[in-house]
Amino acid sequence: MFSLRRQHPSFAHGIHPPEAKDDTKDLPIKQFPFAPVMIVPLQQHIGKPALAVVREGQEVERGQLIAAPDGFVSVAMHAPASGVIQRIGLAPAINGKMGPAIYIKPFAGSSQEVAEGTPCDLDAASADEILLAIQGAGIVGLGGAAFPTHVKLKVPEDRTIDTLVINGVECEPYLTTDHRVMVEQPQDIFTGIRYLLKVTGAPRAIIGVEANKAEVAAALRDAVPADLPVSVAVVAVKYPQGAEKMLIRALLGREVPSGGLPSDVDVVTVNVATTAEIGRLLPHGRGIQERVITIGGPAIRKKGNYRIPIGTPLRFALEYAGMEENLSRVFLGGPMMGQALPSLDIPITKGTSGFTAFTTAQTSAPGEYPCIHCAYCVDACPLFLNPSQLGLLAKSGQYERMADEFHLLDCFECGSCSYVCPAHIPLVQRFRAAKTVVRKRRAAAS
Amino acid sequence: MSQPPRTLEIHSSPHIASGASVDVIMRNVVWALLPVAAFAVYSFGLAALFTLAVAVLSCVATEQVLCRLAAAPSTVRDWSVTITGLLYGLTLPPALPLWMVACGGIIGVAMGKCLFGGLGYNAFNPALVGRAFLQAAFPAAMTSWTPAFADGRFSSLPASTFTFPFAAPEYDVISGATPLALMKFEQQLTASGELLLGLTNGSAGETCAALILAGGVYLAARRMLNWRIPVAILGTVALLAWGFNLADPLHYPPAGFMLLSGGLMLGAVFMATDMVASPITHAGCVVYGVLIGVLVTVIRLWGGMPEGVMYAILLANAVSPHIDGLIQPRVFGTAGGK
Lengths: 446, 338
Prior knowledge:
The complex is a heterodimer.
Chain A lengths: L29 E2 L6 E4 L9 E2 L6 E2 L4 E4 L8 E2 L4 E10 L5 E9 L20 H10 L12 H5 L9 E6 L8 H8 L1 H15 L4 E6 L3 H10 L6 E6 L8 H9 L14 E5 H10 L8 E7 L7 E6 L4 H8 L5 E6 L6 E2 L13 E6 L16 H5 L6 H9 L3 H8 L9 H5 L6 H19 L1
Parallel strand pairs in A: 1-14, 9-10, 9-12, 10-11, 13-17
Antiparallel strand pairs in A: 2-8, 3-5, 4-7, 5-6, 7-8, 13-14, 15-16, 15-17
Chain B lengths: L21 H23 L1 H24 L10 H11 L7 H15 L13 H12 L41 H8 L5 H6 L11 H13 L6 H20 L7 H6 L3 H8 L10 H21 L6 H18 L12
Helix pairs in contact in B: 1-2, 1-3, 1-8, 2-3, 2-4, 3-5, 4-5, 5-13, 8-11, 9-11, 9-12, 12-13
């Protein structure tokens, strides 16, 4: 209500869910073992699925290209382990549908060395060559969106980028992967920033870190190489500070236009773990075949941060990390925006920043009351939407009106409105359904 | 290694919640009203106790019966009807015949709340709907006041309390005019200190401004009341009263008297702030509050009645959806942004 704690810059509105990061934030990243069978979906990103370039029965080496990008909005896939391609077929995906995937059975006695590829030389490569290298390395937004990074970096011809924002906020409760990457891989981050500055033409970069990681920010600040125009900014602890529109508002005071992109305000944002991967992989010509995830939540015994091979089945990961008896819900990501898993047979993909598991007691859903217009949601929505009004319209099926008059399509489903709602109305769920209908109708009409 | 569970619960995100709940909010409003109710009983004795009890019971019973008739789950446990009952009782003259108290409670909840669809859908504050009905149906009884702090108030009841339904109530010889009536009809001013402490006559719960304000501060601090509404109402009334009093001190009472007398405090803090019947945006709440403030001042200074808080709030309730239609939050990244 009153902004007494406004020492650090932030955005207006937002919420303060429990951060729940203390269990894992100080645990170093550990290598996760190989599962007996890995499942590498050909579509782990937004865009077109990759095309498999291996055959069933073929032997592959860890890090070897196994699927090539199909068009511009698509990225490459690499083998997570040295082994044999068991089969190429359908595998369950998070959306409940089946999608094409490559099954790999790792060799038991292999050293699992990753071979060097053709390096992307920072000084010699052009911006377009770096973009190709990023696409070839299979890099997507590791914060969870899984949008192909090279597409995001392709700045429209008529825009000049003046600031590269590196997103190290990680506002989702329980997740500490970006935290650990910033502690353990500062040099990879700086190398990644060099590539990104060259690609975007931006003269400077700002690393945005939430105030609950102030010591990480201080260490990063001390480690910035003298020749690199990078500053580290601490932003207030508030959810959803990690949303790119909110971070840009906090750091630069600019508002990305409704329906627009950061480039409309001369900014490109890249997640800090994605930046670190670019810095780690490109100099060696390698691709993403593993990523850092947090396995946490009250129902996990061995909570921690792990470097886990892409394609590790969730069931294997959960069994390794150990579960409490009364585990009843598993979320891909954290509890605010993470999707509840209908099955444990799906694999870890590039967009998986972690998973959290809860027991029944902690997640019993209370009954729903009618909306009492308390305006808690209006005060929480970081985009200044009117979730109360949207919720009432959704209830009566007025989806078009929601989109036309109340900016439904701006909603990025951060969940702040549902979180604060004293009537326990599943607002985000209703908005998601409404958005799907509106998009389908619009696609059908055009 | 433990075994994975056989069943997984799925649900749309977010999967955690703040713990805020409608029944908790409503219950806290009841807590905030209890000191006000206790003071009403202290100053008016058994008469106020009976009035409040019948008011709450009639409201709760009405909602319970109507839910049953509608074959819908009972909603009395969300505590909102308890607030309605308490607030309604606190706005009544303490010696009002109990059968009238029950009538107003039934009408208020049935017509003011359940007819619209229950909690969340009521256009008007149900407590005020009940009171407005009584004001129209029994104007004489609604303006017959008992004196506060009367001797024997804890041992005997006023003759009017147990009036037989539809019979004319009998009042004791000594009646207690309210500060507003004294001002309006006899140009007699009551000291602000007395009004603040509740030493005057009036409706059961409107006399002690200090306790009402304390309840409001408690609720505002817990974010269960939008402080902009009472601040806008009281600010507007104070500003207008100060201006008129400055221009013509003989005809217009000073601002302090206007703020502390009558039902303004109770109305501004507990009635106008009914979440359902007030606008949703902060800017809208300010407009709504200013509107109530202007209406209260106009009715009090130039109307035929000494008090105007009830009609001012009911009128503003009716306008509230239109305020929402005109004032919406400015969406991030749209015109007006940087």
